[in-house]
Design goal:
With 393 residues, the chain is of the alpha/beta class. The chain folds into two domains: 8-236, Aldehyde Dehydrogenase, Chain A, domain 1, CATH 3.40.605; 241-375, Aldehyde Dehydrogenase, Chain A, domain 2 (3-Layer(aba) Sandwich). Helices cover 42% and strands 20% of the residues. The protein has 13 helices and 14 strands. The strands form four sheets. A five-stranded parallel beta sheet has the order 7-6-5-8-9, with helices on both faces. Strands 10-11-14-13-12 form a five-stranded mixed beta sheet, sandwiched between helices. Strands 1-2 form a two-stranded antiparallel ribbon. α8 links the parallel β8 (203-209) and β9. α2 (64-79) packs across α6.
Length: 393
Amino acid sequence: MEGAAHGNRIGGAASPASSAGRFEVRAALDGASLGVWPRSGPDDVRAGLAALRAGARALEGFGAGERARRAVLAIEALGDDAELAGWLARRLGTTVFELASHRGELGRRAADHLRAAVCAGSTGGATVVIPDWTELLLGTALGVLFELVAGRPVLYLADPRVPELGDALLRALEASGLPAESTALLHGADIALLRAAVRAPQVLRAVVSGPPERVASVGAAAAARPPAVPLATVLDVPRGRTLELVEGAAERAAEVVEHAFGRARTLSGQLPSRIEAVRCEARSFSAFTEALLAELEQAPDARDPVPLIDAEALVALFEVRARGLDEGATLIDGGLVAGREHAPSVRPLVFTNVEEEMQLLDLPAPGPLLRLVRVQPPRRAAPAGFGGASGAG
């Protein structure tokens, strides 16, 4: 609810955070308050894990198949949650319609994911699930539900940039009939709290996604655990794709813009599923670049980008921009569009003359970034008897 105060959920009930700290989340476009959430501390982690002991027993009361059936009901409830859809649209500066593809993808991907969870089986202990905001509904819901279907209770640390997603997921779980005490939801977790959760001896599995620095920090905490209490980890630093173009490259410029910077598909280049680089053969490179620039000028998605909700993304983008220019790449498009206080908008940064050995090509894209690499076509072997060395003396 707009401007309302929210709390953690432990043991199936609202739970006040151990600290008095609070944080407010605002809409990307107009800065209106979208709610206030608590900042959790180590005592909240301990309370959540203690409550999950009862959650483990409650999950054991259902077979894996029944847990999977109820997980499907939770997915349906989450996809139908109009309150969440409206909140996310305001938070991200997009429309409910543009978010429809992400809600639909949740249902399409769920069946295979849950079947794998049924076969996985419980390894005992609790799982800490720490999804990055860019996981949106798909990665967040399936990450938590996989563990529950496998019979493992979950300590879910919600990303503070989209805390309502955590609240909505708990609503969906309760509507499905899965045991409410099987999931403890904590808000406002910083990196120190993430590491503390991973180090807790009751946690035997961690599922973490996000930028390299965050994943590496959590991974280091997992590695520091006592050898007698090992931790199974799923650490994911999502990367975009590199597109290889040969013939007809110019005709694919509109497709590249949609897949790299589409508002509905990638939230204007903020989601990790985007195209981050294009390797184009030299004979088509100039025509493709010209077509791409024309498409960027006229494509609505490129002219009207979704605001950046990650405060660190803007700084990271300008660091990548400086690195590319230092290495000799050419910036042909990109820059700040609107200096909104809460969420600035950035036109896609497009570099050309990017060489294979440049560090620019290896850097993860923190936002709307595309790198164009000119490659030479592979040499064809000369036909026998024409040119080349002869074996005759």
